[in-house]
Each structure stands twice: as C-alpha cells, then as structure tokens.
C-alpha cells in the first residue's frame, strides 16, 4: 500500500522530469552549488533547519544518503515531507479520491474508440497492463505504474520511506507540508486532453527505449539541482503547468516553514526539482531573510 501511495506522490516531480526530457532545456550558467542538502539559519531561529532534495523513486544501486545527510537529519527534531506518508489519514484520503466521478471512464479521456484502443494495445504490449482494469480509476493511478516501468531495475528505493524509518528510529515527529487531497487536485484540475498527452508520452518513452531516466538519475547523483529544475521546465506539453506543479506549491510551503522552523528544528525533504530557480524553495527562503547555504557532502 505504501509503495503505491509513494508512486502517486512521486509523479509530481518524478514522472514529469523523466518523461519530458525529449525537449531539452537551454543550459544556463550555474548560480547554485551542486548540493542536495542546504542549511537554513538566521532570522531568529534557535537551531538551524535543513532542506534536502529527494528523488521519489530510484534504483537500489543508485540510492545514496551519506553520513553528512544522516547527521543533519538526526540532529533535527522534526521531519517535514511533502505529505505525511506515515499518517493513516493520508492513505485513507488517497483511497477515497482514487475513483473517477460516476459516469466517467478512462476511455473518455480519448477522442474516440480507435484512439483508446491504440493506447490500450500499447499499454498491454509494453507494460503488460490491461487498461480495462483501470476504467473507473483516475489516470493518476495508471501514470504511477507507467512511471515505475521506466526504471530499468527490479528493485527501487524510496527516500521518503527511508527517511521515515530513520525518523522513527530517532524518535522524531513527522508532518506534511500539504495534504494528499491537495496533490491529487493538481491532476484533477488538468484538462482531459492534457492527461491524455501525459499517458501517451509515457508509453512512447518506454516504446523508444530512450535514456532519459539515466540522465535524470545522473544529475541527481551529481546533486545538480539546477539541471533537475531545468529538466522539469523543458517540457512543451507542460509549460502551462509550472505554477500548479511547482511554483504555487513552493510558495505555499515557504509560507508555512517559518512557524514550523521556529517551533522546532526541521529536516525538510521535498522533490529536488523544487529547490532551484527564481521561485524555488531556496530563493524564496532567502527572500524571507533566511541564510540558506549548501552543505558540503
């Protein structure tokens, strides 16, 4: 169950950054050091907090979380994730919101029966999934499985779930920066045509057997947060979704963080694609007067 929930959460950065690299972003001069871990201090904080960029799903052999990162985590009092995956209410909310509205089916996202059948056949051939099993579920569920299929490994690791395990071992409290319903609403608000394009792009990427996944994972392992940010923004199909997927959420999180960090030192773990950029979490925190510096690791 948790693995499925994790895949849903990961789509917002994971699926978009993997499936949309076909439109390469223009390279810009790096303004931020390559680091996934950032120390937040100043503005009256009694203890520093830390910002860490995750990748929501990664092959076991590519997973890394070094001692510096671990020391920063266990030195904090609270773990903050995008959503609190340890909260039973979060799981219940996802379960309750997975169904399509009455009278609507997966095939309704396609212009006609022929287009749907072509998609259904590709889904069966390349992923081994029968589309008929997903007729009454929101496409987000199917997208999560397509995203998982993009990994060329049998076993994947989850930063969020591993961070939760560590926080439990060290008796840390856990909270979420947003609700599961808020994340689901991002996709609910998309037009049917936009959802269809995402589904088709996911299948086409697997069909082409390209190396986009390797490129993204390499950037993550090199802690190149600006490159990861550029990858996400490189998509022509989702150029109008930047605010909903990234910017608005960043602003909302940064409005909540001052109170949370004042109450207790926090280890804030969000998708690495949210860190860089003019409207990234790092810059927004600096705009509020905090000192946010890369931690050498």
Q: What does this protein look like?
A:
39% of the residues are buried. This protein has 297 residues and is of the alpha/beta class. Strand 1 (37-41) and strand 2 (49-54) form a beta hairpin. It has one domain (2-98, 141-194, 212-294). 49% of the residues lie in helices and 11% in strands. Helix 1 (2-19) crosses helix 5, helix 4 runs parallel beside helix 8 (192-208) and helix 5 packs parallel to helix 8 (192-208). It has a six-stranded mixed sheet with strand order 6-4-7-2-1-8, with helices on both faces. It has a two-stranded antiparallel ribbon with strand order 3-5. The chain is globular. The protein is built from twelve helices and eight strands. It has helices at 2-19, 67-74, 88-96, 113-127, 139-149, 159-169, 180-188, 192-208, 212-221, 225-233, 242-263, 281-287; strands at residues 37-41, 49-54, 58-59, 78-81, 156-157, 173-176, 266-271, 291-294. It starts with a helix and ends with a strand.
Would you count the extended β strands for me? 8
Structural class assignment = alpha/beta
Q: Major sheet: size, sense and barrel closure?
A: 6 strands, mixed
Tell me what portion of residues adopts beta-strand conformation.
Answer: 5-15%
Binned, the helix content reads 40-55%
Principal-axis shape: globular
- Which stretches are low in confidence, meaning pLDDT under 50 for 5 or more residues running? 1-29
Kindly provide the radius of gyration, computed on alpha-carbon positions and rounded to a whole number of angstroms. 19 Å
The average pLDDT score comes to: 83
Following the backbone from N to C, one meets helices and strands in this order, namely: HEEEHEHHHEHEHHHHHEHE
SS field, number of helical segments:
12
Number of domains: 1
- Write out the strand line-up for the largest beta sheet, numbering strands in chain order: 6-4-7-2-1-8
Ends apart, CA distance between termini: 33 Å
């Amino acid at each position: 169950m948790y693995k499925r929930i994790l895949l849903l959460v990961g789509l917002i950065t994971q699926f978009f950054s993997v499936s949309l690299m076909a439109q390469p972003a223009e390279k810009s001069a790096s303004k931020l050091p390559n680091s996934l871990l950032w120390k937040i201090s100043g503005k009256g904080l009694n203890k520093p907090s830390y910002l860490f960029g995750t990748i929501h799903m990664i092959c076991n052999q590519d997973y890394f979380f070094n001692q510096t990162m671990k020391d920063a985590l266990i030195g904090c009092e609270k773990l903050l994730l995008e959503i609190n995956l340890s909260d039973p209410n979060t799981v219940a909310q996802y379960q309750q919101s997975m169904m399509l509205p009455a009278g609507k089916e997966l095939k309704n996202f396609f212009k006609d029966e022929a287009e749907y059948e072509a998609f259904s056949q590709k889904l069966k051939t390349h992923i081994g999934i029968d589309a008929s099993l997903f007729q009454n579920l929101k496409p987000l569920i199917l997208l999560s499985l397509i995203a998982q299929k993009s990994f060329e490994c049998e076993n994947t690791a989850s930063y969020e779930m591993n961070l939760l395990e560590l926080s439990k071992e060290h008796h840390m409290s856990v909270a979420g920066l947003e609700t599961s319903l808020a994340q689901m609403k991002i996709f609910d608000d998309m037009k049917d045509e936009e959802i269809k394009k995402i589904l088709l792009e996911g299948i086409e990427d697997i069909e082409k057997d390209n190396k986009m996944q390797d490129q993204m994972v390499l950037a993550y392992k090199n802690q190149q947060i600006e490159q990861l940010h550029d990858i996400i923004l490189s998509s022509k199909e989702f150029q109008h979704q930047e605010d909903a997927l990234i910017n608005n959420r960043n602003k909302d999180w940064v409005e909540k963080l001052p109170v949370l960090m004042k109450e207790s030192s926090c280890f804030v773990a969000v998708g690495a694609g949210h860190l860089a950029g003019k409207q990234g979490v790092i810059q927004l925190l600096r705009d509020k007067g905090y000192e946010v510096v890369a931690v050498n690791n």
